[in-house]
Specification:
The chain has a single domain, classed as 2-enoyl-CoA Hydratase, Chain A, domain 1 (Alpha-Beta Complex), CATH 3.90.226. Helices cover 37% and strands 22% of the residues. It contains nine helices and seven strands; from the N terminus they run ααβββαβααβαββααα. Strands 1, 2, 3, 4, 5, 6 and 7 form a seven-stranded mixed sheet that branches. Strand 2 and strand 3 form a beta hairpin.
Length: 204
């Protein structure tokens, strides 16, 4: 499951957005002078005649400006009564010195709050890597789904093995014990179901 989620061959956020939305208008900037165009795509689109807001991770480590932009989008959509679609795909939040200086922890916490407080429907689809709090911040409570080529975990298997002082050969065993495969997530009640390539992400 982890190898599939990390495969360069699997669809990324733009493929899902292009397939689901007939048109898109992007928004950028976190109102603090920062942008994260490579890590988070935010904007509004149209699906079957209805406006949908989206915040989509692109498979890279998301930077603080990306989380702040997503929080801005969720709050704007909430005020306008527009449903929100979030796509989770990140190995985790950026954790370099610059990200720390830019307030990574506070930005993630703010997005958690925006998603949790939203009155408009928020639907989440995990489309690739769902790593740590950097992915969880976009996850809609009670309305998160997963694709077959994804995983969702509090920590990457390699890091979990390292913390447990296990040798590299035990990474795969550690991944299995974490129960991060889509079918595990359904059984644990972490996600509502697995959405196949031919299915559409549900709303509301």
């Amino acid at each position: 499951a982890v190898r599939r989620a990390r495969s360069p061959e699997r669809p990324r956020a733009t493929a899902y957005l292009d397939a689901y939305l007939t048109s898109r208008v992007t928004i950028g900037g976190d109102r603090c002078g920062g942008t994260d165009p490579d890590g988070m795509l935010c904007g509004f689109g149209e699906h079957e005649g209805r406006t949908v807001a989206y915040a989509a991770q692109t498979g890279t480590a998301t930077r603080p400006a990306g989380y702040r932009t997503a929080a801005r989008l969720v709050r704007l959509a909430d005020r306008l009564g527009i449903p929100v679609l979030t796509l989770v795909d990140t190995p985790g939040a950026a954790n370099d010195a610059e990200a720390e200086r830019q307030g990574a922890g506070a930005a993630i916490a703010d997005l958690f709050g925006a998603v949790a407080a939203a009155r408009t429907p928020v639907t989440t689809l995990v489309v690739g890597e769902g790593g740590s709090g950097g992915a969880l911040a976009l996850a809609a409570p009670g309305n998160t789904w997963a694709t077959p080529d994804s995983y969702f975990s509090v920590i990457a298997p390699e890091l979990a093995a390292a913390i447990l002082k296990r040798p590299p050969r035990e990474v795969e065993t550690t991944a299995d014990q974490l129960r991060i495969r889509p079918q595990d997530l359904v059984e644990l009640g972490v996600v509502r179901g697995v959405v196949g390539p031919a299915d559409r992400a549900p709303h509301g």
